[in-house]
Amino acid sequence: MLTDWLNYKEQLRHYVLNNIDDVDAVDDILQEVYIKASGHLQQLKSQDSLKSWLYRITHNVIMDFYRSREIYDELSDALIDDVEEEQALDKMAQCLRPMFDCLPEKYQMAMIWSEVEGLPQQEVADRLGISLSGAKSRIQRGRVKFKSVLMTYCDIEIDQQGAVDFKPKIECRHLAC
Description:
Helices cover 63% and strands 6% of the residues. The protein contains 7 helices and 2 strands; from the N terminus they run H-H-H-H-H-H-H-E-E. It has a two-stranded antiparallel ribbon with strand order 1-2. Helix 2 crosses helix 3, helix 5 runs antiparallel to helix 6 (121-128) and helix 6 crosses helix 7 (132-153).
């Protein structure tokens, strides 16, 4: 396996370089690929499929790399006005709660427990009496439906400094789902 790994190492390096935007992470990703491949060697069905198996592991490690990264840059404290931010959050919270009522009943509690109360998805599944994968699907679909409701009833703008301006298109108490 080690000699085969070495045969594919440079090809995998180029694959990783073409698929990530952080050159410094390439060696870390390749190391993670090697660790995963070594730990799951028993899953390799035949030596003939080694190359595609290594590429699949590499692809999965790259996806994990992107999932683990923060998708936003921290704002400096100088850009944040606590009072304005708190007012904007209060205004948004007042409008968001009725929007959850616009979701189909099947998604309402899953979304409230997950997104508002911050419960882990396993706890949401337990409360709903469904499997974890069922809860994950329900939350994911609920997010899509909630985004649609949000885009229908709110204008959200982000300026160059990253400040969020939230403007309901109508009074939130007048939502017509």
